[in-house]
Fold this sequence. Notes:
Blueprint: E1 11-13, E2 18-20, H1 23-33, H2 44-53, H3 57-68, H4 73-84, H5 89-103, H6 107-120, H7 124-136, H8 145-161, H9 165-178, H10 182-199, H11 206-231, H12 234-243, H13 251-272
Antiparallel strand pairs: 1-2
Helix pairs in contact: 1-4, 2-3, 3-4, 4-5, 6-7, 7-8, 8-9, 9-10, 10-11
Amino acid sequence: MLCTKHSETPFRIADADINIYSIEELAYYLYHNAYFVDESFFNEALIEYIDSQLCLKKIAKKLQYLSGAKTEFTEKVMTVVAGSRYYAENELKDFEKELKAISSKSMLERMYARARMLYENGRLLSAKAVYENILKSKNTKEQDSGFYAQVYVGIGEVLCRMFYFHEAIDEFYLAYERDSSKDILKHIINAKLMWERIDGKAADFSKENEIDSELVEGCRQEFNDMETQIKSSADYDRIAGIFEYDGRHNLDDYYENMQETLDEWKEEYRSEL
């Protein structure tokens, strides 16, 4: 309702997994996600979309010029946000100050923020790739060991979401070597508890017990409480009903329902990868 020109063809912002249909929607996205935007965001495909689908040739032409001139991303973002006429003058002034503050952050800090956004949007392999690029960066002396601890934690979290618990534990140990905080130790313990469930064997908590046996016991109790809570939920009962044949329903329907659920889970997992 607030858009001046609404295209029938969407432009997909892959990192956030959303479609936009207007310059106002693009401006709104940039206004709220500027921290995660880098130079690659303003690519030829986006400029072409603004030109041909939204028919905003002046904005497209200016972005094309700014790309060729290799200017800071701040100017490109402001070209779109101001050009959309969606925000009031005072909002634009405040936003420009915010952009200048963002541009003062190091590239590694902005890469880290981008990886977090990708992870939170379920783009697991993309997040992992950004974290790994941070570790490969030539500018590794720019940040302290605590920063890199969080990068390893990030990789560990991705691996946990992908069910690679054993590999995640290795990443959490690398994080703990750089920052021996209670939070990171908890990541290690929780990953081991999840690995126990997958492996079917008792995990070795000897190192963790030496450091903080109370934390190990507390995590185990939290884990058991959460498992109990899940098993008593309506969702769990519904899914259990799909996979447990009670002998009362048609066998073909049972297999069909089970396969549909498995296909749904597989598709969800594929989309994350």
